[in-house]
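Exercise 7b. Backbone tokens:
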């Protein structure tokens, strides 16, 4: 059972960690490359701020973005800003998201995300939590997948495993950290074709496209190639 209030509190905590870490940077550091190909740290920060506003749109029944082109243009426009402007924008957009999340609402309703994807409103706070945590890692400023809250890591592994579940290009796969297990990929009548074992951070990194999977142990075949998120 998803508790949106718990997830909103988790978003607040993750945002404060992000703001504290980013506040230790300087203007030059913001212009340096992030871990995302083609994006500076400024691009990542601009995306985080605009994503908060986009999810306010979702919660309030408006299109998430005017268009994909407008989304990209906003990020390019905002990326070169000075650090203090980024920080103010992150705080203010985060506050707008929290305000929208705190408003009385039917959390069982269906909402529309980017590209026509639909989901239950109750899952939107977790989606924002994902954005804040993973993009904090993407900044490359000392926050790593191993530093993520254990609850977040477990839930995001489950979320991504479900996302690839039934995908015809992904073999039937069992994921395990030695204690817990998840299933993904296409259905198989006689059990999983491949078993992938590793530490939770490495499983998450592979599923989220942040690590190659080189640290994982694979049985039953090669490490599956995952489609882009």
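Sequence design result:
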């Amino acid at each position: 059972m998803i508790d949106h209030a718990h997830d909103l509190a988790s978003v607040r905590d993750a945002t404060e960690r992000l703001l504290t870490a980013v506040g230790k940077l300087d203007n030059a550091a913001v212009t340096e490359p992030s871990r995302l190909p083609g994006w500076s740290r400024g691009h990542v920060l601009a995306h985080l701020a605009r994503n908060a506003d986009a999810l306010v749109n979702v919660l309030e029944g408006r299109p998430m973005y005017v268009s994909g082109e407008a989304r990209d243009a906003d990020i390019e426009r905002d990326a070169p800003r000075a650090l203090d402007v980024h920080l103010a924008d992150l705080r203010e957009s985060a506050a707008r998201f929290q305000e929208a999340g705190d408003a009385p609402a039917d959390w069982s309703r269906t909402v529309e995300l980017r590209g026509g994807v639909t989901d239950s409103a109750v899952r939107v706070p977790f989606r924002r939590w994902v954005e804040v945590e993973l993009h904090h890692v993407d900044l490359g400023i000392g926050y790593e997948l191993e530093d993520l809250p254990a609850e977040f890591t477990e839930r995001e592994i489950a979320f991504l495993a479900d996302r690839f579940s039934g995908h015809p290009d992904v073999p039937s796969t069992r994921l395990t950290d030695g204690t817990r297990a998840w299933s993904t990929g296409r259905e198989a009548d006689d059990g999983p074709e491949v078993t992938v074992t590793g530490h939770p951070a490495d499983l998450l990194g592979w599923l989220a496209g942040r690590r190659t999977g080189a640290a994982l142990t694979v049985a039953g075949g090669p490490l599956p190639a995952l489609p882009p998120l």
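Instructor comment: Residues 83-102 form the longest helix (20 residues). The longest strand covers residues 173-176.
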